[in-house]
Design a protein that fits this description.
Chain A is mainly alpha-helical. Chain A contains 14 helices and no strands. In chain A, about 60% of the residues are buried. The chains are: A mainly alpha (about 350), B mainly alpha (about 300).
Chain lengths: ~350, ~300
């Protein structure tokens, strides 16, 4: 039950803070809470919207998680996702109109994930080959991506409205409402079940394959791995590539499942919130999905309460939740026995013996 | 070309470079004490907002300046406490503070001024000649209390870090926290104090930004904190060089403004703004062999 403590603390803290903010704006706290609950889990439409908001967060949460398991602090999901979405959107818009989905979808997703992986490759190589810490380099790459995206949209593509052309019909993921009519009107798409599958797939890859196991060992004790003859730089680069590709995968929810084109700012913030998702998810695929749903709920609740309290209130709460989760993670770890592999993301992995 | 080599250009460069330089010197204080600080952006935004809110309600720019600096120091101390006492990873705390400052200032903008984008105008400090020529711009720059405070902080930082007891302790905590603790230095306390200094100096940049625009705008720091971080890294964590790098950034931006006035803006003008970040990556790549960062950056005295 120890793993539930951070969640309970975060929820309690958030409800308390929301009450305080409501008071400050002269609104009855109960009305705000009711609006937040009704707009998220109160209606099928609200649930659909929560799942839609959660989908990119599953991908970016996994992106941070994979890097973290390999001892890397990839905080560059933001830039990786932006450039991946841009590339995927451009390809999807450039395809001939009648392209069947069986070709268009894999191509768009592949290009997006590939581009995002390449963006992550720069800090990955700098870390593995030159020893440059990835925190600074991923921040710099984020800033560079921030500049390249509008430049590419305006100068290279000649788009005046800062968006790509519409994607071809084949390159769109069907909405969930087609299978579950109750979700009618919400933006939840097949990307959500896809994200869940990817979450379990990634866990299997990390646990069942040689590459995945060596990545995790590298994260636990790079020194011991080197002594055992494991190619540490190679595994670090691979982890960074996988992490970047996963970040790029978030475009399935935003570009392919929702907008049908890429525009400036689409998906912004998912990269950073993904870090919080990984912290809260605590090294388990289901945990990451649930954590993404939790932060997705906060985002959707922000829109639902906008009539009572400005929606920025929910961003403030998200920031507080990140801190609360990190503190509680740390506290619950200090109280109990050492967490299992990947169990706590509040601190970088500390040296441990190699399991072999 | 004459406008490129003019007093206007010099004045513009200094005006633009001030927030960068303050944030960079703040970053130096934090990182030399061993605390990773990617929340400079949050300090800039918070101090800019607080200074405008106080100046607008009290009508006193001096009170605004004081409140702005205090708010920046407080936020920075919060970061230090989270990292040192609650042992939250500094990057996580920094990211959370950036989000908190961005959303929090927007929320308060709605609450206090009922606006989603900007505050009402404030006077700020108005000393010196009022002309728009280079000489009067320069005179205003050197008579402004915010820039004077920033200049003093910038000039004193290398001396304080190198020669005073507090500076030496700060560096000891940053270079080797375990050794520092073993000779009786309370590493956490030194770091919290260093972060207070860091926040106060960085906040001068935020106040300058707000007073220069004569109002607060949502997200007005627009990445300057990250640019300052780039300057810190490129400089090898040395204050003089970091400030020099910031003046270079300022000159680059001033050049763009001057050239834009001459109506020959090139298509790649936005890309020039990416130069500092690319330069940082290149410098990091080349400097990788010689570790320039404080040895104890992100490490604790005991775990």
């Amino acid at each position: 039950m120890r793993s539930l403590l951070p969640v309970a603390l975060a929820v309690a803290g958030i409800v308390l803070l929301l009450n305080l903010i409501s008071f400050a704006f002269g609104v009855a706290p109960l009305a705000t809470l009711r609006a937040a609950a009704a707009g998220t889990w109160g209606t099928p439409y609200g649930i659909g919207q929560v799942l839609f908001k959660a989908t990119p967060l599953v991908f970016t949460g996994l992106a941070f998680e994979v890097g973290f398991r390999a001892g890397l602090f990839n905080i560059g999901a933001e830039g990786q996702l932006a450039l991946g979405s841009l590339a995927g959107g451009c390809v999807g818009a450039a395809l001939p109109a009648g392209t069947p989905w069986i070709l268009a979808l894999p191509l768009c997703i592949g290009v997006a994930m590939g581009t995002a992986a390449l963006v992550a490759l720069v800090p990955g190589l700098m870390r593995a080959r030159l020893g440059v810490h990835e925190i600074i380099s991923t921040i710099m790459v984020n800033r560079i991506a921030d500049g390249i995206v509008p430049f590419a949209l305006v100068t290279l593509l000649g788009a005046t409205s800062l968006r790509t052309a519409d994607l071809v019909a084949g390159a769109s993921l069907p909405k969930l409402e087609r299978a579950l009519p109750a979700f009618a009107g919400s933006a939840a798409s097949v990307a959500f079940p896809l994200a869940i599958a990817v979450a379990f797939g990634v866990e299997a890859l990390l646990r069942r394959t040689r590459a995945g196991r060596e990545m995790r060992w590298t994260g636990q004790n790079a020194e011991a791995c080197r002594a055992e003859g494991i190619d540490v730089p190679r595994r670090q680069v691979q982890a960074m590539l996988l992490s970047g590709a996963l970040a790029g995968g978030a475009m399935t929810a935003t570009v392919l499942g929702y907008k049908g084109y890429f525009e400036l700012g689409l998906g912004t913030g998912a990269g950073f919130t993904g870090i919080a998702v990984a912290l809260l998810g605590r090294g388990h695929p289901l945990g990451i999905v649930l954590a993404a749903v939790f932060f997705g709920t906060l985002q959707q609740a922000g829109l639902a309460i906008n009539a009572h309290v400005p929606k920025e209130a929910m961003d403030v709460l998200t920031a507080c939740a990140i801190v609360l989760v990190a503190v509680a993670n740390r506290a619950s770890r200090a109280v109990g026995s050492p967490a299992p592999d990947g169990g706590s993301a509040a601190v970088p992995p500390e040296p441990a013996s190699v399991e072999s | 070309m004459s406008s490129v080599l003019s007093l206007t250009m010099v004045a513009e460069t200094l005006r633009i470079a001030t927030p960068y330089a303050c944030a960079a010197v703040g970053g130096i204080w934090a990182e030399r004490s061993g605390v990773i600080q990617i929340g400079l952006e949050a300090v800039l935004l918070t101090s800019a907002f607080t200074s405008v809110a106080v100046a607008a309600t009290t009508g006193s720019a001096a009170l605004g300046l004081l409140a702005g600096v205090a708010s920046g120091a407080l936020l920075s101390v919060l970061h230090a406490v989270l990292v040192e006492r609650a042992r939250v990873h500094a990057v996580i705390s920094g990211i959370a503070l950036n989000l908190l400052a961005y959303a929090g200032t927007r929320l308060l903008l709605r609450a206090l001024f009922d606006s989603a984008s900007n505050s009402p105008g404030i006077d700020g400090f108005r000393f010196g000649p009022t002309g728009a020529d280079g000489a009067s711009m320069l005179a205003r720059f050197f008579l402004d209390p915010v820039t004077l405070a920033a200049l003093a902080a910038t000039a004193l930082t290398p001396f304080v870090l190198a020669r005073t007891r507090f500076g030496l302790r700060t560096r000891a905590a940053g270079e080797n926290p375990v050794a520092a603790a073993s000779v009786g230095i309370d590493v956490s306390r030194v770091r919290i104090a260093a972060l207070a200094v860091s926040g106060a100096i960085c906040a001068l940049g935020g106040v300058h930004l707000a007073f220069d625009q004569h109002r607060f705008e949502s997200g007005m720091s627009s990445g300057r904190g990250f640019m300052a971080l780039a300057a810190v890294v490129v400089s090898g964590w040395r204050a003089e060089r970091a400030v020099a790098a910031c003046v270079a950034f300022g000159a680059l931006e001033a050049l763009q403004i001057v050239l834009q006035d001459q109506a020959n803006r090139s298509a790649g003008a936005e890309l020039i703004q990416l130069l500092p970040y690319v330069a940082t990556l290149v410098v990091l790549g080349f400097a990788a062999g010689r570790a320039a960062a404080p040895e104890g950056l992100g490490k604790h005295a005991e775990d």
